[in-house]
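Hi P.,

Sorry for the delay on this. The queue was packed all week, but I finally got your sequence through. Input first:
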Amino acid sequence: MKTYLEIAWLFFRLGLTAFGGPAVHVGMMEDEFVERRGWLDRQHFLDLVGATNLIPGPNSTELTMHIGYERGRWLGLFVAGISFIFPAAVLTGILAWLYVRYGSLPHIEPFLIGIKPAVLGIIAFALYRLGKKAVKSWQLAVLGAGVVAAVAFGLHEVVALLGGGLIGMMVLTGLKVNFAVMMLPAARLAQQSDEPESLTQLFLFFLKIGTILYGSGYVLVAFIQTDLVARLGWLTETQLLDAIAMGQFTPGPILTTATFIGYLLGGFWGAVVATLGMFLPSFLFVGILNPLVPRLRQSRWASAFLDSVNVAAVGLMMWVVFQLGRTTLIDWRTWLIGVVAAVLAIQFKLNAVWLVLGGAIAGYLLH
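Then the structure:
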């Protein structure tokens, strides 16, 4: 029991203080569990970091689960993951309540107007950083461009993401399979009712995303924009950008944006089921993958699929940045805030929290 209490406390504390995104989270965990406590040696820690890239979901959150599994097997996995996610989910839920209650008041609106282009700049920086790492060859560059074209012509994001991964794996490894047959499950997964939102639909929607989300937490924006904004009309683009912005204020995984959106659509229980759907697949994937890490890191097929699906995710993000930019960058003020935020992120690697705060202040001053 002492071991599990220690796991719970350490990851809860990390969840309260882990601002700055996945790279910062990984650095904090390396310092805590490799340097200070010696729970893992550095090589195995690096192996686990690499393993998180082989499965969908938030990488740094899945790393907490891997470490919990190493320390306390399945129970340790759940204790570590829940302890890390819980603080961010609660804080995001509180922000959602405040947003619903006060977000439409006139004295709050100027701050939110400035936040939106700042968030767009943050996403553009994530796209720039991921694109540099993802595009490793001309074949992958062509694949990414193909994904952008496919979603622009109406192909569903789930099919584009998984299809891009499978096509790239076949091209890079020379594997020949029946692509149409392999994509049938993805096509079924993409189907969703157009009926008004319910708790069950919210859970299934975020469960779907948690099951196939590769590349970055910001790829979440692509799925939400396509399904909940454009197709179903459950959210507006303004609410989507506000949800991402609120997610930047909290420590821990950015995917607790799902908590915020769940609250907007279904109140307290909407926030609960959206959060469960978003993170539940990661617990299962990590538990299955952890014992296989030594073999998977040597797999040519796994490596090719990962490279391809990451490029596909970058393609999805490019299309979403274009779509959101058309409705967000509407005058010189919003262009100024967006460009400055992107430059500060790229050139000075300024933390997203400060960029969002700066955007809010700029929006108020320029109003």
